[in-house]
Amino acid sequence: MTPAEMETRLASRLKMRHLMLLRMIAEHGSLTRVSHRMATSQPAVTHALAELESMYELDCVIGRASAVLDMQGLEHEVLYHQEPRLITHRRLAARLGRQPLAWQELARLEWILGARQTPMREQITDFFLRAGVAPPAPFVESLSSKLIGELIAANEKAVSIVPADIAEELARIAGVGIVAHRFGWTLPPITLFQRTEGARYEEQSLFVAALRAVCARQAAAQAGDAA
Question: How does pLDDT run across 93-123, given as a tens digit for each residue?
Fold first, then answer.
């Protein structure tokens, strides 16, 4: 198929909803905010991105792995893992850190969680269920680090679970507290998704190699800090 034929085929298949989706992602910079704006779920937005990728409009997608994704025609590669951290108001963090975590008590706090069916929300829900405690209803639904930091710093009952590097940043810039407790699990990994056919292109291979190198340096730096 010639480039002109490919362009014609894509133009005939590309829907207005795809154009609107890409525009809103560029504007809001977050799949969660886009899903709220479009009154849909984040998995639905992810599915639409997968459609665009299969139509050769996207070469790569970076996000958290989820068991609900249709991986037909796609390759995936885990880039890095993140540990979770429980963040709260500083006074509450100091109190919670002095004793083992009581999940029934945590469930009564005001939780800031991602939207339903997002990988982190599903994992947190599963963790409460495994502890024999009904999962908390969210006080606010958001994955915006800025909003989470502002809400927790201003509310002595607010709580959330975020990646460790995000927790450290919010402690520095927003003044939240990090509960001195290490969980025995990791968050869904940050993963690179690319079309099986596209992975053979030299330009894409160079980009992926550079991405791997950046992630490897970051992992090494974090390991050094933890040592």
Answer: 999 999 898 999 999 999 999 888 788 888 8
- Looking at the fold, whether 107 and 47 belong to one and the same domain comes out as no
Put the strands of the sheet holding 190-195 in their side by side order: 60-64, 190-195, 74-80
Residue 108 lies in a domain: yes
Residue keyed to tokens 């469930």: 107
Domain that holds residue 17: 1-58
Per-residue model confidence as pLDDT tens digits over 158-179: 999 999 989 999 999 999 999 9
Amino acid in the structure at residue 200:
R
To 10 degrees, what angle do helices 42-54 and 16-28 make?
Answer: 120
pTM of the model: 0.68
With beta carbons less than 8 A apart as the criterion, state whether 78 and 106 touch: no
Domain count, the chain: 2
